[in-house]
Write a structure and sequence with these properties.
Elements lengths: L2 H10 L3 H5 L2 H18 L4 H34 L11
Length: 89
């Protein structure tokens, strides 16, 4: 799979939330919340946890899509397709 196709597939799987809030913005918020919690206590811990979980969820989603794309690429190179063995029925 060429790089352009790979990038197109990664872009097409973004959700509305991912379009609205970038990973960079999430990390900025994450760091600011950590500082707020350090200075003022754990009142904002539920929000910090939510941002943390969103970051981890996106990382895991991206990791799984990357694996799926590599498997698909490997299958297309070897001639193996879903429901077939070595490209034959």
């Amino acid at each position: 799979m060429n790089q352009d196709c790979y990038q197109k597939n990664r872009k097409s799987r973004e959700t509305d939330l991912e379009k609205d809030v970038s990973m960079r913005e999430l990390y900025e918020c994450y760091n600011k919340l950590a500082c707020i919690i350090k200075e003022h206590g754990d009142e904002y811990l539920p929000l910090f946890e939510r941002v943390h979980n969103e970051i981890e969820s996106r990382k895991e989603k991206n990791r799984m899509v990357d694996i799926a794309l590599r498997v698909a690429e490997s299958n297309s190179k070897s001639g193996t397709h879903f429901g077939t063995q070595n490209g034959t029925h």
